[in-house]
Amino acid sequence: MPDTAEFYRIQKLPPYVFAVINEMKAKARAAGLDVIDLGMGNPDGATPAPVVKKLVEAAADPRNHRYSLSKGIPRLREEITKRYMAKYGVTLDPEKEAIVTIGAKDALAHLLFAVIGPGDTVVSPNPAYPIHQYGVIMAEGQACMLPMPDAATFLSRLEDLYRTSSTKPKVILISFPHNPTTTCVDLDFFKEVIRLAREHGTMVVHDFAYADICFDGYKAPSILQVEGAKEVAVEIFSLSKSYNMAGWRVGFCLGNPRVIAALARIKSYLDYGVFQPIQIASIIALRECEEATRNICTTYQKRRDVLVSGLNRAGWPVQSPQGSMFLWAPVPERYRAAGSLEFAKLLMEKALVAVSPGIGFGPLGEGHVRFALIENEHRTRQAIRSIGQFLKK
Ligand SMILES: Cc1ncc(COP(=O)(O)O)c(C=O)c1O
User: Fold this and answer.
1) What local confidence, expressed as pLDDT, does residue 234 receive?
2) What spacing in Å lies between the alpha carbon of 373 and ligand 1's midpoint?
3) Is 387 helix (H, G, I), strand (E, B) or coil?
């Protein structure tokens, strides 16, 4: 067998930087040490009980054991369009403007695979969730990364790109509330992106994985709220974070019918849809579990407050995010030169706290580490104490 490095596409995919920290974590735990894991954005809460109950019921019915529909069962597509109408006042046709996906990751990877070819440029902010960059690379496109110290700077760099570059991007790929930087935007930001995209004939893909994870009264807008957005844009929504359903693998792609049709075609060759009982239970999540979503937000918000105030008190200045389930923290000055991976290793070794090094989210992520709010308040306090002691040394 050839070494995997010789495989055409695999060569383009470097091993996950996060694997280094994961390995250290596994070793420490195997040695009996108590590691506080604020690394991966993997929700720790339970799926709402009515959803689990419906899954159990539906799983007992043999009619649900067959292949399902690749683009999702009609009632689930109808339910997501009702949610968009109720929450955002957006009209969507469940037949042509909505497709069910195997989570947002499937939607992103296969959408890029469907619409991008060799040489096509996809512009997105960096740092970013890895599939935003590597989905483009796997589809043999060019990933054009623009810095995003804040949303306004990203927008002005995007305008510069249209003004100065001879090749126009085929796709703008964005995601707000943003992982890992936690940047949030208002509807005016999306209006400007849609204006540029329509003017230059660019597609827009908005990954809305953190749609509902908002704090302090902030409400994240949907890009589809912008008038005319559907002419150029699709939005990807996921049940993973809004309903603690990460393991269930249910997402949606919504909006421009041409793009939805392209994704539906690709997926019709690749999969037979999510297990039908899961799709049926997902209807219950969307229809009945708004309160569960509010509780999930409150939980993250409390953890955020504990972490932000604790780190600031420990002499590590960080800013409080308005959305997402993360904290994006600049590496303290003293450790910056060594880089985010070395600093994350130190936190793991000396404080027994796992975080994600910024470099894992792309070159512009260097200089930061990301905390995920996935440990309870008590454990989060424990992490702060231990980080505080490490920083004092
Ligand atoms: C920005 C972003 N998009 C998509 C995903 C994956 O979502 P899903 O579980 O629906 O595949 C994540 C998960 O962390 C994410 O941070």
Assistant:
1) 98
2) 15
3) helix
